[in-house]
Design a protein that fits this description.
Elements lengths: L15 E6 L2 H18 L4 E3 L12 H8 L1 E8 L7 H16 L3 E7 L3 H6 L2 H14 L2 H15 L4 E3 L5
Parallel strand pairs: 1-2, 1-3, 3-4, 4-5
Helix pairs in contact: 2-3, 3-6
Protein name: ADP-ribosyl cyclase/cyclic ADP-ribose hydrolase
InterPro entries: TIR_dom (IPR000157), Toll_tir_struct_dom_sf (IPR035897)
Catalytic activity: NAD(+) + H2O = ADP-D-ribose + nicotinamide + H(+)
Length: about 160
């Protein structure tokens, strides 16, 4: 059996094939850079944020638009993902787009236990949410918790950083 390479015609309603959501210091220089290069070589147009787009107030309008304009979102859950309110806002928007526009959402569990994310427990997710509870509104924290639980319950991939 042979496989033929097909020329893809991009769907004009999508600006990006893939949106990558990740906590920069945990994965940017290793896993994400390799994943991005592999996608690029395969002809897949991926959006990877630039730290310049980030603001302390939360997710920018530009980032929100990039999520909405992506066919697929890959959420790379790592040890410090939940420490970032920015990342929590991203995953909340991604889950919303999965429900409202049918965007595919693929979780990647990078050196973390999916159950810790689903339940916001453990040394990373549990402690991070204790801090968020003290600094953020209950409504916002509940939205983050719901988004994490929903995303972590989706079929995904478990990866250990030792191979990267």
């Amino acid at each position: 059996m042979s496989y033929q390479s097909e020329e893809r015609t991009p769907d004009p309603s999508w600006k990006y094939d893939v949106f990558l959501s990740f906590q920069g210091p945990d994965t940017r220089r290793g896993f994400i850079s390799r994943l991005y290069q592999a996608l690029k070589i395969s002809g897949i147009h991926a959006f990877v944020d630039d730290d310049v787009l980030r603001s302390p107030e939360g997710m920018s309008y530009t980032m929100s638009q990039a999520i909405e304009a992506s066919r697929v979102s890959v959420v790379v859950f790592s040890e410090n993902y939940a420490a970032s309110r920015w990342c929590l806002d991203e995953v909340t928007k991604i889950v919303e787009c999965g429900r409202s526009i049918g965007q595919a959402v693929i979780p990647v569990f990078y050196n973390v236990d999916p159950a810790d994310i689903q339940n916001q427990r453990g040394p990373y997710y549990g402690e991070d949410f204790q801090r968020h509870q003290e600094r953020s509104s209950d409504e916002r924290v509940q939205a983050w918790r719901a988004a994490l639980t929903e995303a972590a319950n989706l079929p995904g991939f478990n990866i250990t950083g030792k191979s990267f």
